[in-house]
């Protein structure tokens, strides 16, 4: 049995009691079956989920309200984006953006990212993994909830194609150092930069980034490639 298969595992998120707007609820109810992929305990080739199966696939873990996801997909029609999110309002908002922008290169899995990566994503199939502003769980007693940990990064690396990248961004200095240590320890990926990476030109800003900057926190980026 896999490490994350038990539904009682320590979750890297907390379900927020955020109410859905009428537009988000309509999109969720009407578009879910068209753009959302059912959770499964069996592997699914991510490329088969899109009309353009030959395009690279980027897996985005925890896309929040989906604004950055929609922006990336609109700017890069030759890349397919598979997003994972547990919060219904974010899923609903991204579904509405997909419909509004005619974005055929986004699919969504509404489930726990730890379970999805372990069960649904086959090895050697992803061209990139995006992890933008994951919850830092800043209190020391909550560090066990952080999604970036050795066992999960090992899974992510195994699911990257050779040359595929793992790209994470945070505005919490201590979490950035934590992630750098975990990535440095991971076998099979290497840092093409000396320390933190420059911001990739195609990465849009996020609401979390704006809040971090407004609070005076520095944005730190980590970009590693599978050897």
Query: In the CATH hierarchy, what is the architecture at level 2?
Result: 3-Layer(aba) Sandwich
The N- to C-terminal Cα distance equals 28 Å
* Strand order of the biggest β-sheet: 3-2-1-4-5-7-6
Work out the helix count: 7
Q: What structural category do the secondary elements indicate?
A: alpha/beta
CATH homologous superfamily annotation: Vaccinia Virus protein VP39
The helix content, as a percent range, equals 25-40%
- The H-and-E topology, N to C, reads as HEHEHEHEHEHEHE
Question: What would your notes on this structure say?
Answer:
- The chain is of the alpha/beta class and 227 residues long.
- It has one domain (40-226): Vaccinia Virus protein VP39 (Rossmann fold).
- Helix content is 33%, strand content 18%.
- It has helices spanning 22-35, 67-75, 88-101, 113-119, 150-159, 173-185, 207-214; strands at residues 57-61, 80-84, 106-109, 126-132, 160-170, 189-190, 220-226.
- The chain has a 7-stranded mixed β-sheet with strand order 3-2-1-4-5-7-6, with helices on both faces.
- Strand 2 (80-84), helix 3 (88-101) and strand 3 (106-109) form a beta-alpha-beta unit.
- It is globular, with a radius of gyration of 17 Å.
- It starts with 21 loop residues before the first helix and ends with a strand.
- Mean pLDDT is 91; it is low at 1-8.
